[in-house]
Amino acid sequence: MASQKPGSGAYGALADRQSMRWEITKRAGAAERVAPCVALSRLPGAGGEELGRLLAEKLDYGYFGREIVEKVAKGLGVDHWAVRGLDENARSGIERFLLDFFRGYPFSDDLFLRRVTRAIVTIGRRGRAVLVGRGAPFILGPETALRVLVVAPREVRVERFAKKKDIPLADAEREIAIVEQQRVKFAEQQFHVQQNDPLLYDLVVNTGTFRVEDAADLLIEALQRRFPG
């Protein structure tokens, strides 16, 4: 299991490369300052995944989409991957954070949610990562990450979704409604928040008025201003 990788394909490789970089830094004994993360939540069809991947490429960060985080949590266990190379002080700090986090909210005793949360917290503590979905903006605090909600007008999202899936607009409308409901329910049930509440985020970016490339540049500038040095 230890040789298995959490990601697959080009963007899985970004995550794997980041894991190796963390380990090399640890072995070298380098006192590298922990760089911040970017945590994205998104409306379906708003281009959040595309924006996250582009950000990771431009920043030379690891990319951790929902599928990768779930694979880490479900298949490998964080101790086999993201925690590798952490010293005991860092591990203890993560454990204390998780205890406080789950004590402070009326979460269900969901082992998978705990594993996902552990994965996100650990990646956040390692730094230099873009995380998309799975409640990352609700788990990582403002001292750790730039938290962003990616939106676009509904008609724009429906058109993009239909084009991406190669389906009629009516089908895209129905699918977007289902995904929206699932995400709202996940945020409410697991984190007791409204996903689309702008006060939960540092920034809201509208890809209906900004191209994904321009939105990425804006977020990079915001990240540098939010975490100078």
What does this structure look like?
- The protein has 229 residues and is α/β, with parallel strands linked by helices.
- The chain has a single domain (9-18, 37-221), classed as P-loop containing nucleotide triphosphate hydrolases (Rossmann fold).
- It has helices spanning 9-28, 48-59, 66-76, 88-104, 111-126, 136-139, 154-165, 169-191, 212-226; strands at residues 37-42, 62-64, 129-132, 145-151, 203-206.
- The chain has a five-stranded parallel beta sheet with strand order 2-3-1-4-5, with helices on both faces.
- The radius of gyration is 17 Å and the shape is globular.
- Residues 1-8 have low confidence and may be disordered.
Q: Which keywords apply here?
A:
single chain, 229 residues, alpha/beta, Rossmann fold, five-stranded parallel β-sheet, 57% helix, 10% strand, disordered N terminus
SSE order and pairing:
Blueprint: H1 9-28, E1 37-42, H2 48-59, E2 62-64, H3 66-76, H4 88-104, H5 111-126, E3 129-132, H6 136-139, E4 145-151, H7 154-165, H8 169-191, E5 203-206, H9 212-226
Parallel strand pairs: 1-3, 1-4, 2-3, 4-5
Helix pairs in contact: 2-9, 3-5, 4-5, 7-8
